[in-house]
Amino acid sequence: MTISYNKINKLEAPHQAKCEVKIGDSVESLDTPVLVVELDAFEKNLLGMKQLVQEAGSKLTNQPTIRMRPHFKTHKSPAVAYLQVQNGAQGICCAKLTEVEALVNGSYSSVNWDILLTNPIVGEPKLVRLGKVAQQMKSKPDHPLLAICADNVQNIHDYLRIAKEYDVQFNIYTEINVGQNRCGIDNLEEFVQIVQEIVKNEPQLHFQGIHAYQGANQHVRSYDERRHNVVGPIKQRLEECLRLLNEQNITCPIITGAGTGSFQFEIESGIYNEVQVGSYLFMDVDYTLNLGQDDQLVNQFGQSLFMYSRVNSINAKSDICPRLIVDAGLKSLSLDSGLPWVHAPEATEPLEYISQGDEHGMIVPKGATKFQNPDQFKLGQIIKLIPGHCDPTINMSTHMVGVRNGKVETIWYVEGRGVGL
Q: Which InterPro entries match (predicted)?
């Protein structure tokens, strides 16, 4: 199946994200560094996740439907989020309030977005913005309620005050710490108290479920360990949460969490009924290093996201340091999960990227002191790089370019980018 991007291509670019790329441009004409999405692989990933979630859910007897709520923080692009809800997603997650605002006020503002904000909102400036964006969502017919997370009773008091001031309602998820040791409630007695506080403040606040995301588990390399973490201690902790709620005659409609590295295990556990997959669309070096059940590198999803860079200095025959210098450095690539990989299957040998500062990267022969064939490289040649971590790398760019058969087919603007207010 090939997806049509005609509707996306007719949209005006956000003012701050104007670019010179045009539909139909050749890949060779692109200015670099530029984020490029190879659409054949992207579409296979998009549709493949829908199928995998359906297949995993079909093996369960106690969960009639597994909902997909992909994470907007991966791409921060309303155009991509729209493609996801058109292809199996029931809603969207946002990590930051700026991301919610990008969906509600951006180029797809006409869509009735079903949004879960996966972090508690703290501080008066953010609370005021929360009220305003919820009010904007309410202005649309048949609007879903904005959902937000809480892990402190003060969150509930703040949300209630904002709900009354702006005449809105919120769906509330209590966040449970399931091993990430980031946000989330540790003490389950406190968890019950927070849920009770939500329930007693209906209808302004509505208890929608439990948020239980274990981000660190996404990159545990061992298949067996990733699976054990979910179907073992995480499942047990959530079962105890449900038992405590049952004692109070409180129903928990949704338990949400999971990611690209573990979603099948959350579904298998039988306790999650919503998964927050994100990176599957693009993939990166970090996810590529995960192992499958056969102890081979996972290959469920293909690499679709590349940073295209150009050789802007060439010393391939040097006796001092044989090298190529490309124009992609720290300003265009996030190194928090390691260096990017060079994707050059046409090269006569494996190549390696070495960071050379803000604007530069160095390409050298991997595991060797000299290039086997230095004449294969040319000044201005495009070198494709696989980002170490897709999310923060995308956050550095204003747009992504979708290509097929060497031509630009669509342009996606990263409208939710920035420091994440």
A: Ala_racemase_N, D-amino_acid_metab_enzyme, D-ser_dehydrat-like_dom, D-ser_dehydrat-like_sf, PLP-binding_barrel
Residue 4's pLDDT band (boundaries 50, 70, 90)? confident
pLDDT of residue 60: 85
Compute the distance between CA of residue 92 and CA of residue 103 in angstroms, rounded to an integer: 10
Q: Which domain holds residue 397?
A: 17-38+300-413
| Any domain includes 79 | yes
**Confidence class for position 18, pLDDT limits 50, 70, 90:** low
Is 295 within the bounds of a domain? no
Rounded Cα distance between 146 and 125, Å, is 18
Last residue in a domain, options 288, 314, 334: 288
Residues pairing with 297 in the sheet:
291
- Verify that 47 and 30 share a domain, yes or no: no
CA distances from residue 414 to 87, 100, 349 in whole angstroms, order as listed: 20, 13, 35
The CA-atom distances, in angstroms, between 212 and each of 57, 66, 116, 183, 186 are 18, 15, 13, 10, 12
Q: What span, in angstroms and rounded, lies between the C-alpha atoms of 73 and 63?
A: 27
Q: How many residues does the chain have?
A: 421
DSSP structural state of residue 399: E
Distances (CA, A) of 122 to 210, 230, 270, 310, 370: 19, 29, 33, 43, 55
Residue 88 CA to residue 67 CA, distance in Å, equals 9
- pLDDT, mean of residues 301-321: 98
Element (H, E) at 239: helix 235-247
Q: How confident is the model at residue 13 (pLDDT cuts 50, 70, 90)?
A: low
Looking at residues 193-197, what average pLDDT do you find? 98
Looking at the chain, the whole-number percentage of residues with pLDDT higher than 70 is 98
What's the structural domain count of the chain? 2
What average pLDDT does the segment 340-354 reach? Answer: 96
Q: Do the domain assignments include residue 7? A: no
In a domain, 269, yes or no: yes
The dihedral through the CA atoms of 124, 128, 134, 137 has a sign that is negative
Q: How far apart are the first and last CA of the chain?
A: 38
